[in-house]
Prior knowledge:
Layout: H1 2-10, H2 18-39, H3 43-66, H4 68-73
Amino acid sequence: ASRHLRSLRxxxxxxxxxxxxxxxxxxxxxxxxxWMQHTQPNSIERMFVILAQGLYVSFYSLMYAISPRTAHRA
Length: 74
Protein backbone atom coordinates (compact mmCIF):
# COMPACT_ATOMS: atom_id res chain seq x y z
CA ALA A 1 0.00 0.00 0.00
CA SER A 2 2.88 2.35 0.77
CA ARG A 3 4.31 1.81 -2.70
CA HIS A 4 0.95 2.68 -4.25
CA LEU A 5 0.62 5.83 -2.15
CA ARG A 6 4.16 6.87 -3.09
CA SER A 7 3.29 6.46 -6.78
CA LEU A 8 0.29 8.76 -6.29
CA ARG A 9 2.44 11.41 -4.55
CA UNK A 10 5.20 11.31 -7.17
CA UNK A 11 2.78 10.89 -10.11
CA UNK A 12 4.76 7.88 -11.35
CA UNK A 13 3.50 4.40 -12.14
CA UNK A 14 3.70 1.65 -9.53
CA UNK A 15 3.46 -0.86 -12.39
CA UNK A 16 0.12 -2.24 -11.23
CA UNK A 17 1.25 -3.19 -7.73
CA UNK A 18 -2.13 -2.30 -6.19
CA UNK A 19 -3.94 -5.10 -8.06
CA UNK A 20 -2.21 -8.04 -6.31
CA UNK A 21 -2.73 -6.30 -2.98
CA UNK A 22 -6.47 -5.94 -3.63
CA UNK A 23 -6.75 -9.58 -4.69
CA UNK A 24 -4.95 -10.75 -1.55
CA UNK A 25 -7.18 -8.58 0.66
CA UNK A 26 -10.32 -10.03 -0.94
CA UNK A 27 -8.96 -13.57 -0.50
CA UNK A 28 -8.30 -12.99 3.20
CA UNK A 29 -11.73 -11.42 3.63
CA UNK A 30 -13.43 -14.48 2.13
CA UNK A 31 -11.47 -16.81 4.43
CA UNK A 32 -12.59 -14.79 7.44
CA UNK A 33 -16.24 -14.75 6.35
CA UNK A 34 -16.26 -18.51 5.75
CA TRP A 35 -14.62 -19.11 9.14
CA MET A 36 -17.20 -16.92 10.86
CA GLN A 37 -20.08 -18.69 9.13
CA HIS A 38 -18.87 -22.16 10.17
CA THR A 39 -17.74 -21.48 13.72
CA GLN A 40 -20.17 -18.80 14.97
CA PRO A 41 -17.41 -17.20 17.12
CA ASN A 42 -18.24 -15.86 20.56
CA SER A 43 -17.09 -12.51 21.93
CA ILE A 44 -13.84 -13.93 23.39
CA GLU A 45 -12.84 -15.38 20.01
CA ARG A 46 -13.70 -12.11 18.29
CA MET A 47 -11.53 -10.19 20.77
CA PHE A 48 -8.70 -12.66 20.09
CA VAL A 49 -8.95 -11.93 16.36
CA ILE A 50 -8.86 -8.18 16.99
CA LEU A 51 -5.85 -8.55 19.29
CA ALA A 52 -4.01 -10.77 16.79
CA GLN A 53 -4.65 -8.30 13.96
CA GLY A 54 -3.45 -5.40 16.10
CA LEU A 55 -0.25 -7.23 17.01
CA TYR A 56 0.39 -8.22 13.41
CA VAL A 57 -0.17 -4.71 12.04
CA SER A 58 2.06 -3.22 14.74
CA PHE A 59 4.87 -5.72 14.08
CA TYR A 60 4.62 -5.43 10.29
CA SER A 61 4.54 -1.62 10.42
CA LEU A 62 7.66 -1.58 12.58
CA MET A 63 9.39 -4.07 10.29
CA TYR A 64 8.39 -2.02 7.24
CA ALA A 65 9.70 1.18 8.83
CA ILE A 66 13.04 -0.47 9.65
CA SER A 67 13.50 -2.46 6.43
CA PRO A 68 10.89 -2.28 3.63
CA ARG A 69 12.85 -4.86 1.62
CA THR A 70 12.57 -7.42 4.43
CA ALA A 71 8.88 -6.68 4.94
CA HIS A 72 8.09 -7.39 1.30
CA ARG A 73 9.75 -10.81 1.45
CA ALA A 74 7.16 -12.11 3.92
